[in-house]
Amino acid sequence: MGPRRRLACGLGLSVLLASLAPAPPALAHAALLGSEPADGVTVAQPPATLKLTFNEPVSPLIVRLVGPTGEAVTPKVTAENSTLTITPPPLKPGTHVLSWRVTSADGHPVGGAVLFSVGAPSAPPAERGLETDPAVAKTIWQARILIYVGLFLGVGGAAFVALIGRARPLPSRAEILIAIALVIGLLATVVSLGLQGLDALARPLSQLWQRDVWTSGLLTSYGWTAGMATLAQLLAFVALRARQRVLARACAVGALACGGLALALSGHAATVEPQWLSRSAVFLHTVSVAFWVGSLIPLAAIVGKRERGDGELAAFSRIIPVPLAILITTGAYLAFIELDRPDALWTTRYGEVLSIKLALVLVLLTLAAANRYALVPRLKTGATRSLARSIAAESTIALAILGMVALWRFTPPPRALIAAEPASIHFHGGKAMAQIDVEPVRARGAEVLIEVLDGEFHPLAAKEVTIFLSNPAAGIEPVRRDADSLGTPHWRIDDLRIPIAGRWKLRVDILVNDFDKETLEDDVLLPRAP
User: Fold this and answer.
1) pLDDT digits 0-9 by tens, 265-321
2) Which residues of 345-354 are buried (b: 16+ CB within 10 A; e: fewer)?
3) Which of 186, 258, 396, 520 sits at 20 to 30 Å (Cα–Cα) from 381?
4) What is the 8-class DSSP label of residue 453?
5) Which residue spans within 389-428 are E strands per DSSP?
């Protein structure tokens, strides 16, 4: 199979994988820090206002209040920086659910719910947080992969042809592949606006063609990204077809610039301060990737020609170290600001995706180095087939990298995972008591410190301390964790996972000696510590 056919198969494979892959989990990028009333509490009097406080400025999309009898109302909402103030109608006694969905500064919608009671708890209404439909999440990921195909293979390929290609035309099959990549990317970019609207409004995929869905998608920061991506691919079309070299080069430079701006205008890194530096890093990183990955289709075509295009290969070999250096430098900076700490590479989902991407990039760099320093100098001695196979392998790995990068749309970076406030609990029994401090650690569960005392508040030299944690309302069976002694009277448990905030049943077993055990238990409010 020839190199051009391998590239075509690789492009088709990326589309097929996008259609068959399972939906990625929809995770938040902005975080709810607290609410008034707090989640799970009971207040004596109906509050005049409700408040939701986030870790960054947000814009409300949907806020719905469901009362004890199941009636739902849309209250008045005022947004001020990172706080939403909700003015509800007169609240009846019983349990209420406040469902919310907002869009964060990076353009990604996030939703949830807060439960509170007035007077006394009642049966909670059948209302959940406003979350992304799994089918919508899967389609967004598929569309993101195809947009990357257009921006990197399409725009990058057209730029290579216009900026490095010689006067003689590229083989028609290569131009067709680049044009196909651009068409795929353009269609996916247009559809992605509607998908963004579905995500924003927590609507099902069947409502994609409703007008308010597209309006909502356009009004998020992603609307700028989609607009720039569309312009980039249209300019790339002009660059690919233009016969005047000056026009082709001008459009190619414009296409690369618009592609870089597209990814710098929204997304995780766009919100990291100082934004001018983080956005600049994303811009340079995107342009460098597009130039490198986009060169694969035309390079394969050049190698396959009888006139091997040694001039183009030599020019590319001289230029490519510069974008590779920019790519590595900006990539390292972006990883540094997003990871927040080294162990996030293997303790968070974002880090796991990044680890796989880095491994694939390392393989890609190794192949590029082999091409640059081993295979290109041997072209005149008949190394054409080896170079063609190497370029085809680079193309396959590049497509795999694009698929991994698309997962970041649903995976918040560690620096965006905000730890909840710590909780302090005191249990008092007949023979022993326990002071329990639960401190959530960002993206690493919770650290639990237990101080065991006797009935007169003196240190108690217990032999064992064990906790049991359950949440019957959420269907979570008791989880047992044995504490490690830090020396009388202190005990510790690391990495306790608390998947949801709210009311939990907590039991503490204190083995005083071989014949005496004190059991303390109660319902307690615990923060979320996943």
Assistant:
1) 887 777 777 888 989 999 999 999 999 888 888 877 776 554 455 567 777 778 888
2) bebbbbbbbb
3) 396
4) E
5) 423-428
**Residues whose CB is less than 8 angstroms from the CB of residue 377 and which lie 6 or more positions away in sequence, other chains included:** none
Q: How far apart (Å, rounded) are the C-alpha atoms in residues 88 and 76?
A: 7
For residue 278, give every residue at least 6 positions away whose Cβ sits within 8 Å of its Cβ, in sequence order, or none: 269, 270, 271, 272, 334, 337
Q: Side chain identity at 226, as an amino acid letter?
A: A
H/E run at residue 468:
strand 464-471
CA triple 133-134-135, angle to 5 deg: 90
DSSP 197-212: HHHHHT--GGGTT-HH
Phi-psi label, residue 475: left if phi above 0, alpha if psi -120 to 50, beta otherwise: left
Q: In the chain, which stretches have pLDDT less than 50?
A: 1-4, 6-28, 167, 306-307
CB-CB contact of 309 with 323 (8 Å): no
CB 132 within 8 A of CB 199: yes
End-to-end CA distance of the chain: 49
Q: Name the one residue in this structure whose structure tokens are 């509170």.
A: 116
The answer to whether 313 and 379 are in contact (CB under 8 A) is yes
Q: Give the count of beta carbons closer than 10 Å to the beta carbon of residue 457.
A: 9
- Label each residue of 312-353 as H, E or C: HHHHHHHHCHHHHHHHHHHHHHHHHHHHCCCCHHHHCHHHHH
Structure token digits, residue 315:
């020019």
Place of tokens 């939701």: 52
In angstroms, the CA 216 to CA 206 distance is: 16
Provide DSSP, 177-189.
Answer: HHHHHHHHHHHHH
Strand pairing partners for 471?
A: 476
Q: In this structure, what are the phi and psi dihedrals at residue 281, rounded to the nearest 5 degrees?
A: -65, -45
The span from the CA of 196 to the CA of 266, in Å, is 12
The pLDDT tens digits of the residues spanning 243-275 come to 888 999 999 999 999 999 999 988 777 777 788
Strands 76-80, 423-428: pairing kind: unpaired
Select from 168, 170, 192, 191 the least CA-distant residue to 179: 170
Helical packing angle, 245-264 and 156-163, nearest 10°:
150
Using CA atoms of 400, 406, 407, 412 in order, give the dihedral in degrees to the nearest 10.
Answer: 140
Give the predicted TM-score (pTM) of the model.
Answer: 0.72
Supply 146's token pair.
């195809």
- The amino acid at 39: D
Q: Which residues does 275 contact at the CB level (< 8 Å), separation at least 6?
A: none
Distance (Å, rounded) from C-alpha 453 to C-alpha 149? 63
